[in-house]
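$ ./design --mode recover --in tokens.txt
reading tokens...
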């Protein structure tokens, strides 16, 4: 089989030397694959065993090397395929230490999110439906993984989409998880919007190292896209905080002028109100 025919026979998009991306439903997840000479790294495993099986089948269409896994953050659509991969020989599941803790703490609660798409996972019924947190942790300093002929860097730049987002750099490609979102609004439900802006700024400063940025969902983007997301989020947070500071104004009136759809605008407002309440409680506690 020629190299051109081989490229056409598999569903992967090659982004760099030994670096690929695969999009699978449900949730339009982008899974990354980095193939060394000794082993291969899978980035995010899907929302349950059914999706994980499709991902692993695609992986095995490219390589039969031993596998390790990294989870970019603790949301179900990125980690619920871990048990399937573990059962099929994958070793060394990497994430931030906080990601592993959140998966342990909230994994059972997150099962409800896949009730329609992966009912067996939702009901903890059948094979490979256990919650499987990462067993290798990134805490503080970056971690370099030598796959043989290519090294991958795992690093945390700060809070953002969650409090446990991990970035994965391979060659000229940076996998950002849901810190970057293409084709849809960012997800604010358990985010840290002010810190997210700063984290995006740190990502844009890496443009001398990376020129392809792979979001958790959507098409790969360049650094200009990341900068645009940063500026849009900064504007949205500013508008929302002004509305929150105007005690006499119904804060929901800010929703129509935010640069997002109604659902995520409301999620941003709710999240900022929640975080502001936490900070108020912390100040009250420290003053007693």
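writing sequence...
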């Amino acid at each position: 089989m020629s190299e051109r025919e081989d490229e056409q026979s598999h569903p992967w998009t090659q982004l760099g030397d030994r670096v690929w991306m695969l999009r699978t439903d449900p949730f339009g997840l982008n899974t990354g694959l980095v193939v060394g000479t000794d082993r291969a790294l899978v980035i995010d495993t899907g929302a349950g065993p059914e999706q994980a099986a499709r991902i692993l089948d695609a992986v095995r269409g490219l390589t039969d090397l031993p596998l390790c896994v990294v989870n970019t953050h603790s949301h179900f659509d990125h980690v619920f395929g871990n048990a399937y991969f573990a059962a099929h020989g994958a070793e060394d599941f990497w994430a931030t230490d906080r990601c592993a803790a959140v998966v342990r703490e909230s994994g059972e609660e997150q099962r409800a999110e896949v009730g329609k798409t992966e009912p067996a996972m939702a009901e903890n019924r059948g094979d490979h439906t256990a919650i499987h947190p990462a067993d290798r942790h990134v805490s503080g300093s970056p971690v370099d993984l030598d796959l043989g002929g290519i090294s991958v860097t795992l690093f945390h730049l700060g809070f953002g989409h969650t409090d446990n987002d991990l970035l994965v750099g391979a060659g000229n490609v940076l996998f950002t998880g849901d810190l970057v979102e293409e084709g849809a609004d960012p997800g604010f439900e358990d985010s840290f919007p002010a810190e997210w802006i700063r984290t995006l700024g740190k990502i844009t400063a890496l443009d001398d190292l990376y020129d392809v940025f792979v979001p958790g969902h959507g098409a790969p983007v360049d650094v200009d896209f990341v900068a645009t997301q940063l500026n849009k989020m900064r504007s949205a947070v500013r508008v929302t905080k002004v509305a929150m500071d105007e005690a006499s104004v119904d804060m929901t009136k800010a929703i129509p002028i935010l640069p997002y759809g109604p659902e995520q605008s409301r999620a941003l407002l709710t999240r900022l109100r929640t975080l502001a309440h936490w900070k108020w409680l912390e100040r009250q506690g420290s003053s007693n």
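exit 0
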